[in-house]
Structures are given as C-alpha cells and as structure tokens.
Amino acid sequence: MNTTDKGSKGYLVSIVMVAVLGGLLFGYDTAVISGADKGLQAFFMDTDGFQYTNMWHGFTTASALIGCIIGSALSGMLATNLGRKRSLFIAGLLFFISALGSMNPEFLFFEHGKPTFSLLLMFNVYRIIGGIGVGLASAICPMYIGEVAPSNIRGMLVSWNQFAIIFGQLVVYFVNFFILGDHIQPLVEEMGRGLAAINPNAQWTVTTGWRYMFGSEAVPAGLFALLICFVPETPRYLVSIGQDQKALTILSRINGSAKAARILTDIKETITVKTERLLTYGWMCIFVGIMLSVFQQAVGINAVLYFAPRIFGDIGMQDPMMITVIMGIINILFTLVAIFTVEKLGRKPLLIWGSIGMAIGAFGVAVTFGQEGLGVLTSVSIMIYSASFMFSWGPITWVLIAEIFPNTIRGGAVAIAVAFQWIFNFIVSSSFVPMFNLHLTEGDDFGHWFTYGLYGIICLIAALFVWKLVPETKGKTLEDMTRLWSNS
User: Fold this and answer.
1) 91-130 tens-digit pLDDT
2) Residue 236 in contact with residue 248, Cβ under 8 Å?
3) Which backbone phi and psi does 369 adopt, to 5 degrees?
4) Which residues lie across from 187 on neighbouring strands?
5) CA–CA dist 260, 238 (Å, integer)
6) CA dihedral 418, 422, 428, 431 (to 10 degrees)
7) pTM of the predicted protein model
8) Which among 488, 470, 303, 340 has a CA at the least distance from the CA of 401?
9) Secondary structure of residue 188 in the 3-state scheme
10) If residue 484 lies in a helix (H) or strand (E), which one and from where to where?
11) Are 456 and 363 in contact (CB under 8 A)?
C-alpha cells in the first residue's frame, strides 16, 4: 500500500496498540490487590506493637485510589507541558516502580520479612505511586488515541482502551490464580477482635505469594515504558508547540499526504495559542465532561465489579467465583459490541440504551434480592446491569472525554473530568457496603432494595442527561468540537 497517498493502517494500529497497553496496566494495577489482599493482611497481622485492624486493611487495599486522584489531577499539566508521549512514559515508570516496590517494600530501609508500622506506610506509598500512574494513564491514553485517530474510526479505537482495561483485570485474575497454585489462602475465620486467623499451613502465601502478585506487574509496565519511546507525539500537541512539519509527517503516515495537509490546516485554525483558559468555551463544555465522568461511577458499576463474589454468595449461588468469571467473560463480549457499533450507531444512542438496560438490571436486583427461590433472577439482573454498562458507559465515556473538548483546553479539561471520575469511584466503592447493610428494623432488606433502587434511578437520570445535554460527536473531527462549543 502506498502510505504517502492513503496512509498506513498498520502504522496507526501499531501506535494505538502501544497506547492501549496503558489501559491494560490501568486494569491490571487496580485488580492485582484482589488476589493479594488475604496474604498481605496476614503478613501485617503479625506486626509487633501495632494492631492491623480491618480499617487499616481497608485503607491499604484502597490506597491506590488516592494516587489515581492525584495522577488524574496532574495529567492536564503534564500533558500540556511535557506532551502526551512523555507523560505516558512517566506513567509507565510509575507502574514499574510501584510493582517492584510493592513486591519488596523493605528495599534499602527495612529488614526483609519483618512487618512494622513503618513498612506498612512504605507499602502504601508504593501503591499510591502506582495509583498516580493509573490516574495519568486513565486520562492520557484515551487522549493520545483520540488525537492520532482519524475521525471516522476514532470512537472504535478509543473504545479498545476500555477493552484493554477489562482484559487487564481478567489477565491479573489468572496470573494471581497461577501464582497461588496449590498454596492455600492464609485467612480461615473471623476472630472476636475483627481480624482473621492465620492458617499455619499457608506460610508461603503470607511471606512470598502476595509479593509475586504485585511484582508480576513489572513485566507489562516495563514493556509499556519501553515501547512508548518508539511511538510519535500526537499531531495536535506538536502543532500547539509550533512543530508543524513533524505534525504533517505523522498525519501523512496515518491519513495520506493530501488529507494530512487539510487536517493540518484545520488544526492550525483552532490552535491559535498553546492553551486557553478553561472556561473560554463556556461552563457547559466543562460541565458536560465532568458529569459524564460522574455518571459513569454514580450508576454504581464498581459496587458490582468490586463486590461481585460477595453478592453472588449472599444470594445463595453455589460457586460465586465461577459466576463472577462468567460475568467477566460477558463483560468482555459486550465491550466488543461497543467497539464495533460506536461508529455506526453513535455515542448518544449507546449511552441512552445502556442507561435503560442498567436501570432494568438494577431494579431487577432491588426487587428480587434475598427473595427465596429468586437467586437466579437476581444473578441475571446483575449480569444485565453489568453488560449494559460495558457496551455504553464503560467505553463510550472515555471516547467522549477524549474528543468532546476543544484542542486548546483538552489537557486541563480531561484532567478535571477524570479526577471527578476517581473521586466518585471512591465515594461509590466506600459507600456500597454501609448502604447495602442498612436496616430500618432488625432483619429487614431495606439496604438491599434501597441501594440498587438508587442506582436504577441514577441510571434513568443519566439517560435524560445524555438526551438533553450531550452533543453527538460521531464522524466529527476534533477541530469541529472547537466550532461546536464556540457557537453554543
């Protein structure tokens, strides 16, 4: 194929696949704790002079979210001042440092294998470092893909980032499973003081197993940091810093020389200065981006994904982990539905229909949860809820956040939107268990139907928000967004 005249699809796919590795690391890092938490908890339970309570363990398992908020907040400044490529390289280094540091938090300063309060703090520092990498990658990976992709397939390519996130979670589940092997989990029962007992036959899991799980992330992290060195900077960023010729070269390799010249002219018309003030295009532009992120989390999806085994166990399923794996496979399949329909159906229809499907699933859980003989209906409702998210709010939110903002404010606007996403991720995740266990009278199911009923109502509000306020971006160039918000 003549890449000068028509562009090279192979070149485009290769650089997008490298960026998508950042999404895989996003999923890997957030899910690695799922297999390591029991061994980690048992390790720190043996700390002299310090009681490792459930509260401390809850903080330790969620500490990466603190880094996610920090990383997403910094992403705009880094992407604007250092560029998209260098920012992703920094994210890769942070993933790598976090993986090795979490595996061996004693490095240089502490005695190996001896749990102390100071070691616990150091471990959490390494997890927060990884979280900063997640925050950067979650904002900049879709931004990078959106800025290099042609407008007619941009939605599909950005959606692959969501697929990589889900796939990364699935990969680490299997990695943790193989690392654990024949070794048993160390925590066997609840004690009166709220801590689990340590099984004396699980010594390897307590001393070594959790370390290998965290350390395994160093392999994809190192690969990502290496490969990102070989991808180009985005044409939009290059134009913003006055490197028009480099931008034209990259655009030509992707789109062909004739089309590249037109795109370059379009970019230059909308990038009059390197950056503009955040509210240059009005508050509605920022509000829509923020609310897309807020609704993606407020619909309650992470309450399902994080606590799926517990939910399936509570409704009497014989093998909750197997049901969770089945749900994970369904999630991947429905993410593929979004990838292959987003350019045909558009962003808004997928979001609206996904919201309605989620509402049906959430109300189904609210009505059937805990009812004798209705466990299968509850499971089906949860899967409808999850699958509906995976073809709509999961990938499409990232697509819209990557493309909805004008060029000159994209870095800062994406950073704010993604920071709100992580803040509401934390709010939903931390509020689910207290809401779910809420009782007005002893033994009633108020918390069950209230929690999922609330999520169902939020889903309907989200559908209304998309219908009334979110512009359709299918087939539009990134430069069209500047004109859209300028005229609104």
Assistant:
1) 999 999 999 999 999 888 888 888 888 999 999 999 999 9
2) no
3) -60, 130
4) 198
5) 14
6) -150
7) 0.79
8) 470
9) strand
10) helix 478-487
11) yes
